[in-house]
Amino acid sequence: MDEFHGRTAVVTGGASGVGYCLCQRFAEQGMQVVMADVEQEKLQESAARLREAGLNVTGLQADVTDPQAMEALALEVKNTFGPVHVLCNNAGVGIKEAQRRLWTLTPNDWRWGFDVNVMGIANGIRAFVPDMLAHGETGHVVNTSSGNGGLTSLPTTPIYAASKAAVTSISEVLHYQFLMEKAALQAHVLFPGPHVVNTNILNSMRNRPADLRDDEDLPAYVSMRDLLKASGIENPQLTEPEEVADTCLAGIRAGQFWILPQSSGQDAKIQTRTESILARRNPTLPE
């Protein structure tokens, strides 16, 4: 899409982190932006901040894990703003799993991680894509994955990695099906990076539903930097959410399915994994 001005974007998980910066960047291009998030107070605060900067942003509360809520969001957006041209299925959560083994993770851990990270994507697609196809205008669906799981898997975050692997697969299939339909829509999969992104995803437990909580004493990390230091990385290099938003915008403009920033470290991991598969060689622990 060469021209964003006057068109409509919807971003889930838009109240903070990468989602907030995506909303800001799209609005700066002259788009009318719907910032969707489950956190009402934070949502209104963030939307107000962008409006104070002169940007055309509206905050609408929606829970991506609820299909009916997403359908209601899509209907409200259509009735208020008209056709949607950019949909960013960006909402995601992190489970406090880095110091636990896979077999100790609870059904509630798995349920919540997949409800948000996978079903949130599916619910966004179901709610918005039919009308995006029907109105026939050029459009884009961007699903936020992760290098962790979406490309290669860290051995410490099984739920997160598995959920992001699913996001990559869903996005590839969506891309193929848009081609089969000869649609004016393009699918994209966004891999935030090239370094660990400095967001507050570690604090997403605050939004975990009461019926999916467990009475476990889980390790608490104040920030992503703290988590990396606890993993033995003394001076971690981080990517800021603003950089991810810039990469996403450039990737949409370039028509890239794989919105993946250059990274020699990530490229080496992908190559090692691919060679291992082709050689039928057992995986080894990453260094």
UniProtKB/TrEMBL annotation:
Keywords: Oxidoreductase
Matching InterPro entries: NAD(P)-bd_dom_sf, SDR_fam
Pfam family, one: adh_short
Recorded GO MF terms: oxidoreductase activity
Keyword Oxidoreductase listed: yes
Domain of life: Bacteria
UniProt KW Oxidoreductase keyword: yes
PANTHER family according to UniProt: BLL7251 PROTEIN, RETINOL DEHYDROGENASE-RELATED
Family: Belongs to the short-chain dehydrogenases/reductases (SDR) family.
Name of the featured protein: SDR family NAD(P)-dependent oxidoreductase
